[in-house]
Request: fold
Amino acid sequence: MRWDLLFDDLEAQLGTGDALERDAEVADRTRRERALLDLQARLLAQTGPGAKPLGVVLGPREVAGRLLDVGPDWALLETGPGRELLVALAAVRAVRGARPGARLPSVVARRFTLGAALRAVSRDRAPVELTDVDGRARTGTVDVVGADHFDLAEHPGDEVRRPGNVTGTVLVPFSAIASVRRL
Reply:
């Protein structure tokens, strides 16, 4: 009888050790997988049906909206019916209301950068409001988009880009962009 109790005790200890080792391995693998997730993957999980509004902190201001899409260095927020805001992820200081989870982007989505999004805005020739990381707003039309910057022809937002309406041109590095909104 004593031997049975001894073997039962040893078996229980071994089982407990195996369970603890398994739990530690699962926790370690979970930490490693989470360490590979970037902001794009976390924000992609906040899009789609049933997406809740988020608060996106951009320097001195916070913008509320529902995430429509996310690229490797930008996010598109719907801030009201028909009002979309292109946000540079480098300008994001915090996101309020994000739920847990992540969704990996497609290969195409990983390549559609802020420059590509700004080139699409430039093709439309629509007036925009640019807000920089310091909170300063400018209006005009995106003229030329380079690898890491663009030219903004400044003019009042309620006027079309015509030589007589342009008050100046400003070169804007992507790193200075907080958000761009079509007017």
In short: The domain at 37-183 is CATH 2.30.30.600 (SH3 type barrels.). The chain is about 30% helix and 35% strand. The first strand starts at residue 54 and ends at 58. The longest helix spans residues 2-35.
